[in-house]
């Protein structure tokens, strides 16, 4: 089984490193090209105009693929652990995997349809990516608690749950403020709302 193969632990680390690089590289290019202001632009704004849009799209699609691989490895790991411990129903693990895969599809949509080109599709992809991500993180936190103390420490479970809570708290204002915006625009002039 893939999850029992030595060396697969590098995949989640690669996912985090690659995703971080995607955001940083597109941000630096967008700032240097004068396409965004350097002070806290939206992530999507840094991947809207060429040349950073191509780099952003490519790198985020690779991140989505790495996310799929990471989630599948986690799914297999839980299935293998569950064979001896029976700490969670297999259907819960499959449901968690499906939610995570939906989030990765949302990432792919965000990467493929730029914010200014097709804003409604981009926004739906972002909603699916972030919403599914919050649900996936929460489900994985619950599964981790159910596997204690045999397969996880309570410290790790508490950290996962803290990340879940922070994600849920951050998701709510994202939805509220995104719903207040009636148009997508990067460059604002004085006097505009």
UniProtKB/TrEMBL annotation:
GO biological process: regulation of autophagy
Protein topology in the membrane: Multi-pass membrane protein
Listed transmembrane segments: 7-33, 53-73, 94-112, 124-143, 155-178
Stretches assigned to the CWH43-like N-terminal domain: 8-183
Range of residues in the leader sequence: none
Record keywords: Membrane, Transmembrane, Transmembrane helix
Subcellular localization: Endomembrane system
InterPro entries in UniProt: CWH43_N, DRAM/TMEM150_Autophagy_Mod
GO CC entries: endomembrane system; lysosome
Family: Belongs to the DRAM/TMEM150 family.
Name by which UniProt lists this protein: DNA damage-regulated autophagy modulator protein 1
Source organism: Aptenodytes patagonicus (King penguin)
């Amino acid at each position: 089984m893939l999850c029992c193969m030595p060396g697969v632990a590098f995949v989640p680390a690669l996912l985090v490193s690659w995703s971080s690089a995607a955001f940083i590289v597109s941000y630096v290019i967008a700032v240097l090209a004068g396409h965004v202001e350097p002070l806290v632009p939206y992530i999507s704004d840094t991947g809207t105009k060429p040349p950073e849009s191509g780099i952003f799209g490519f790198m985020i699609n690779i991140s989505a693929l790495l996310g799929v691989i990471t989630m599948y490895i986690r799914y297999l790991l839980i299935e293998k652990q569950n064979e001896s411990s029976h700490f969670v129903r297999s259907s819960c693990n499959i449901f968690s995997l499906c939610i995570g895969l939906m989030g990765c599809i949302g990432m792919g949509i965000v990467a493929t349809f730029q914010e200014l080109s097709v804003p409604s599709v981009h926004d739906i992809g972002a909603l699916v990516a972030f919403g599914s991500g919050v649900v996936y993180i929460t489900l994985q936190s619950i599964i981790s608690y159910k596997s204690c103390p045999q397969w996880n420490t309570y410290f790790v479970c508490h950290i996962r749950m803290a990340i879940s809570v922070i994600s849920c708290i951050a998701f709510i204002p994202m939805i509220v403020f995104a719903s207040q915006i009636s148009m997508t625009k990067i460059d604002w002039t004085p006097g505009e709302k």
